[in-house]
# Entry
Amino acid sequence: MTQPTLPQSTVLITGAGSGLGRALARRYDSSGYAVCVADIREDRARETVAALGGDPHWAMACDVGSDASMEALRDAVHARWPRLDVLVNNAGVASGGSLLDAPMDEWQWMLNLNLLGVVRGCRLFAPRMVAAGGGAIVNIASFAGLAGAPGLMTYSVAKAGVVALSESLRAELYGNGVRVSVVCPSFFRTSLTENFRGDSQILEMANKLMDHARESADDIAASVFAQAQAGTFLILPTAAEAWRWRLKRFLPGVYFRKLLQLAGGRVAKGAP
# Structure
């Protein structure tokens, strides 16, 4: 019996049923990758696979907030493919509000999905990459994780954790042939706020910024793909963030004053 031809390259993308994840699936597909489309909503994952043309792509329901669900995803990927070339930890949710306003259940929800979801992906799939002597891990964070902006407390802290995780993982895997990248975009046109929790004013502002953004999800996906393939660690795929990051690094006082100006003097409700 003839054995099926193995795909040249393979990629697993979480949260690939919509938004940036779907755009990344299209971009990797266009470069000849077989894509495992994982999403908490299997119907959306299947829609992405159908849009890619079916085989060799495939869909699987997965909740990045669940140990058991992520372990099942790992087992399915390892059973189907002898190797995984690229892991994109993309799945996430959005929130907005101050430290004084965010309840603990919002913190737990956010950290479990946006930070520990990435931890689960890295710890479950990195060992096989190390054993194979190569691969790439791409963690989707946000410029919010670098910016230190007010009003995005739970989201910013979770994304900052993804940046710190990626920095440490990069060092831990150095010399093993496994590249690590962390992606920190600002606002672009996508469906990020679909499952938003928190301050309605922050939600309204975020939607306006996304509606008026220069870049689409496809633009971001193209930049992420190119820079991750080149081995770039910190990927800033939206136009203004590169200079904002340099300003924060080299002139932190100036950056902080400009940050407060952009925030319009916004302070947490109930602050003295």
